[in-house]
Amino acid sequence: MIDPVIGAANIIPLYERTAPVWLAARGTELIETEWLDLFTRLLAPGATILDLGCGGGAPIAAELLRRGFAVTGVDSSASLIRHARTALPDGTWLVDDMRRFDPPERFAGIIAWHSFFHLNVDDQRAMIPRFAKLVRPGGPIMFTAGPDAAVAWGEWQGEPLFHASLAPEEYRDLLSAAGFGSIEFIDADPVAYVWLAVRE
């Protein structure tokens, strides 16, 4: 069994090492329209959105830009961010770690699609209050997680791929304590389990 601490720490170098393959595999096909609809219905036209763990920008940030939103994408892979800057010049693309990202501005909404669940459980607990500091009052956040408290291992390019989740009750308590309301936990299987909440 791989130590979860080591597994979580390997996420950043793994995606950086395999960036070209990841870009080809992820492609531009959008299968998340339903979830983006839920998220964006809570935003004003042209609102600012922070995409944490944006990868190469497609298809999530690309779709948000197409809908007229102002997108700032953050990813720890310099190679993926370079691709996003070239492919989607209308966005703002930054190499940074979501756990430490601290811009001067606050955003109208935050999405962390298939990225948040690569953090270890302690980092996830610490990240919920950070969401609250990064989003404006009245703004939605959306992230994906697993159905229960667990560590799960996938595989990417022959290497173990770490995922972790807290129990739904703990996510709900953390979100509520951080000042979020209208908290929804949506079983979107097989895509993901989706959390949607609004900063009060």
UniProtKB/TrEMBL annotation:
Keywords: Methyltransferase, Transferase. Residues 49-139 form the Methyltransferase domain. The keyword Metal-binding does not apply. SUPFAM superfamilies: S-adenosyl-L-methionine-dependent methyltransferases. GO terms for biological process: methylation. It holds the Pfam family Methyltransf_25. The keyword Magnesium does not apply. InterPro entries: Methyltransf_25, SAM-dependent_MTases_sf. GO terms for molecular function: methyltransferase activity. PANTHER family: TRANS-ACONITATE 2-METHYLTRANSFERASE, TRANS-ACONITATE 2-METHYLTRANSFERASE-RELATED. This is Trans-aconitate methyltransferase. It comes from Sphingomonas aerophila.
